[in-house]
Write a structure and sequence with these properties.
Shape: elongated
CATH superfamily of the largest domain: Crotonobetainyl-coa:carnitine coa-transferase, domain 1
Distance between the termini: 31 Å
Number of helices: 17
CATH architecture of the largest domain: 3-Layer(aba) Sandwich
Strand content: 15-25%
Helix content: 25-40%
Radius of gyration: 25 Å
Structural class: alpha/beta
Order of helices and strands: EHEEEHEHEHEHHEHHEEHHHHHEHHEEHH
CATH topology of the largest domain: Rossmann fold
Number of domains: 2
CATH class of the largest domain: Alpha Beta
Largest sheet: 6 strands, parallel
């Protein structure tokens, strides 16, 4: 029994930010009803290749992208543009604890599925709206996608090859981090609202924007600008506030060195045969190292470049110097620690036999995650759940299907 066992989530989201949030809630034990358009479904179902192969080795219609964010849910195909479909969803709202949606601002009002309508049906409902720019402001009506938000929110201006070097320029992060972080803020906010409801009996509306999220997690870089007044730029893999904290080339690969304090720097220098650097006033403190990084880093680069990756990593680990290899994905999933933590799992799948998944990283001591359900096929749970939740009989379901409502 997961920690959210008994909580019901109506999922009116698609693409990534919303589905990521509802997948986490499903992992934590909530029952998630994913509402999808009949015959079409979530846009990401078609975002491939690659697509999952069936047991005969032939591609299915299940894209890897879709499979990454929809584990543990029940797929119900309901046409919300049809009055009967709207009625079904409103009845589900009455039975839900949480609604998460990512339609454009005002997009659900015409269907009477907006927050005001939902609250009238269920005063205890927690209703989370995810949009590109929020429910208010001059850009509220604009569509927002991850890459453009990474740009607008400043992340791309600090990501990439060091400014002034060949190949420098704005770079987006290799996964949709603005979407993913918004999904995680959605999880934390609905859980906070759930706690508030448990204390007061009151539901509420959560207004969550991708752009706000991206600005919010600029973190130390954002504060560097607000406090120091200088606009940050690209630093490659280097850290703006800590030295040495960056990638270095070894004789046969690359290593990420993450020296966080002066004692670690001293041990780092010992490993590299550069003990004198640790007592040099230009490098003995982190502030001095930041000021003199252009003098220090070339000396470290030369020493590190003469060592093999495995030898250097072992030596740093033995000395308590934080470091790690820069792994390609095949090496990531072959890492002994990743294997030990069971971060790659498989679930039973109706077409493929099994489907690989990347596990949720949370390890609960008392309510461990129980992965019960693979990402669902389009509409695979429609009739079962409508019968179970709304009491619809077979004849009624047949009529709804014939009318294109489900």
């Amino acid at each position: 029994m997961g920690p959210l066992s008994g909580i019901k989530v109506l999922d009116l989201t698609r693409i990534l930010a919303g589905p990521w949030a509802t997948q986490v809630l499903a992992d934590f034990g909530a029952e998630v009803w994913k509402i999808e358009q009949p015959n079409m479904g979530d846009d990401t179902r078609r975002w491939g290749p690659p697509f999952l192969n069936d047991t005969a080795g032939q591609p299915t219609k299940e894209s890897a992208y879709y499979l990454s964010a929809n584990r543990g849910k029940h797929s119900l195909t309901i046409d919300i543009a049809h009055p009967e479909g709207q009625k079904l969803v409103r009845e589900l709202i009455e039975k839900a604890d949480i609604v998460i949606e990512n339609f454009k601002v005002g997009g659900l009002e015409k269907y009477q599925l907006d927050y005001a309508s939902a609250q009238a049906l269920n005063p205890k409902i927690i209703y989370c709206s995810i949009t590109g720019f929020g429910q208010t402001g001059p850009a509220a009506g604009h569509a927002g996608y991850d890459a453009m938000i990474q740009g607008m929110g400043g992340l791309m201006s600090i990501t990439g090859v060091e400014s002034g070097s060949p190949g420098a320029g704005p770079q987006k992060v290799g996964v949709a981090v603005a979407d993913l972080m918004t999904g995680m803020y959605a999880v934390s906010s609905v859980l906070a609202a759930l706690h508030h409801r448990n204390s007061t009996g009151l539901g509420q509306h959560i207004d969550l924007a991708l752009l706000d999220t991206q600005v919010g997690w600029l973190a130390n870089q954002g504060m560097n600008y607000l406090v120091g007044g200088q606009v940050p730029t690209q630093n490659g893999t280097a850290h703006p506030n800590i030295v040495p904290y960056q990638a270095f080339s070894t004789a046969d690969g690359h290593i990420m060195l993450a020296v966080g304090n002066d004692s670690q720097f001293s041990r780092c220098c010992d490993v590299l045969g550069l003990a004198g650097l640790a007592t040099d006033v230009r490098f003995s403190t982190n502030s001095a190292r930041v000021a003199n990084r252009q003098i220090l880093v070339p000396q470290l680069t030369d020493a590190i470049g003469r060592r093999t990756l495995d030898d250097l990593q072992a030596a740093f680990n033995a000395a308590g110097v934080p470091c790690g290899p820069i792994n390609t994905f095949d090496r990531v999933f072959d890492e002994p620690q990743v294997k030990h933590r069971e971060m790659a799992i498989t679930l039973e799948h109706p077409l493929a036999g099994t489907v690989p998944q990347i596990a949720n990283p949370v390890k609960f001591s008392e309510t461990p995650i129980d992965y019960k359900k693979a990402p669902p096929l389009l509409g695979e749970d429609t009739e079962q759940k409508l019968a179970e939740l709304l009491g619809l009989d077979a004849e009624h379901l047949t009529q709804l299907r014939a009318a294109g409502v489900i």
